[in-house]
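ok so I'm stuck.
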Amino acid sequence: QVQPVESGGGLVQPGGSLRLSCGVSGSIFSSYVPAWHRQAPGKQRDLVASISRRGFTEYADSVKGRFTISRDNVKNTVYLHMSSLKPEDTAVYYCNVNRVITSEDYWGQGTQVTVSS
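replied:
not stuck anymore, here's the structure
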């Protein structure tokens, strides 16, 4: 059973930084494409960043230059380093891993990030 588990959320002041981690058990992690999504209250869940098996990254326009996604295939972990945080970054952040060739798609339970003074 493939299970992503997020950690690292919390309360941070505007302009601050946080690093989210997502450990993925039960998989050949290097064969999956991990991504971070977020959902603010009353809004849809949106893609924040993704990283391909070869390390190619993509970001939502709203986080470009502030967030960095990375992966460690030895530790089976994907990270999201967030800096220059804004109140509008407040949301539940979800880790997702997928493998198109086998139609697999797994989600974590989410971790709350609150940006407030």
